[in-house]
Amino acid sequence: MTRFRLPALPALSPLTYSALLTLTLALLYNGPLWQLILDQSYPSDLKRWGFTLAFFSFIYAVLQLFMGMLSWRLLIKPLAIFLILSSSSISYFMQSYGIVIDKGMVQNLFQTDMAEAGELLSSGLILHLLLTGVLPALIFVLIPIKKVAPVRMLALQSANLFACLALIGLNAGLLYKDYSSLFRNHREVRNLAVPSNFLYYGGRYLAGAYDPVDRSFEVLGADARHIPSPLRQVTGTAKPDLMVVVVGETARADHFSLNGYDRDTNPELEQRNVISFSQVESCGTATAVSLPCMFSFLGRDKFDDTKALFQSNVLDVMNTANVDLLWRDNNSGCKGVCERIPSEAPKQFVTAADCKGDECFDQAMLNRLDQFLASDNGPKLLVLHQKGSHGPAYYKRVPDSFQRFTPVCESSELQTCSSGDIVNAYDNTILYTDHFLASVIDYLKAKQANYNTAMLYLSDHGESLGESNVYLHGMPWLLAPDAQKHVPMVFWSSESFRNSRGIDQACLQGLKDRALSQDNLPHSLLGLMQVSTDVYQPQLDMFAGCRQSDKQLALRPLSSDQAS
Q: Greater confidence, 260 or 177?
């Protein structure tokens, strides 16, 4: 009986082996890049394919320039296995969800918790890894590599270096205008090139380039004081304040029926006299950026995540002003925002009735709040960080009773579902967020006898649902579609809350279509909570224009007998 044997593969020199590896990487894992190149406007098909071949030679030369320097016999084979398997994984997500790789996406990858990572595992990913990862890696494992004398190896590497530089120079010399136009109009090219994209950003992340440097903490708002308006005495609203800030997750403004969406995704909020600000822009397209940015005083244009980490945010300033604070999280953490204030994780408030399997719903964040309310009689601010509409498993985010729009996509492989099923699953998450926000308002209404109450909801970023074959979020800001940046914001307040501040409800309604951004949040919160401090900028307080000028005393220092 004859045994089956794999055919013997020819032995290659380390440099030839690296050249074959470079060819495999350039061809097999760069589908989105080649699609972008081919989709450019060309005067003829000859020009189209001619430039595509030239660009391929450029990419090949750049990769092989570095690969050639690493083509030592004991190094190149382990490197090949790592690059093939990692490139296969990265290419799957790029092709399936339309993402690009940059600093923010790498940060998202390393900051994703196990539950979120598990939702990305799918049969499609496994099949893709087997066909474009494991199989090519196995072939490269079986290719024998010749021994080459060190002196000859250095000579071959030198020749490879000069050949690659010559090919790069030839491209630059002959096609400079074409390349400059391409890189000027499509800055995402470098973010699409596998494996250089994830090697560059991943390497910098692991090397600590994005880690906080040793620096002193910059205290802002050290002068902060809570100064209630004299209107409280005049209007009979001399009660402590209780405000809830709900940080939404992955909600799109254009899927809120409050903003004109043709589906009734906000039936409960419609009945609660809320104001929906319809033109609000996020600071980033991923939680790792937007969450710290929206509570920072830096603003989107000047935001730096390291600087924000070592600078007081609006919650710190309120803490200085003796506002009683609590952060409750049903997501993957507060990204440093709540580091210096009391915070609670799900295990501290979730009950078995709030969960289905491993998924615990946002409603649980309203459990066991009596201890927070009983702490003292001062002003209180509660932040609730939702799981919201986090994808790709939208169908998991809502209890069965809120699966109203059907059929739904019940897969994390969104590209395998119809557009309608994806939208149905997503809209159900908005419907559940509507219910959750209505529950927050009802909770606050029940506390009106003892508190002036208000709620402000603002999502961290939006979401792509397959438009132009882009899914999820996290695109670089300049490239991201409006769906990832246009976010909902909803405000509700009790009559006593408005009266104690002289806020005109009709005026607020008139501002609902005003252009706003997450830059407005810190200053609006200071104004609403009547915190006086030098860091407050009234021009960024979206409510300031609806407070009568003679009622703005809450934002100016008062005499000691007026202050609390």
A: 260
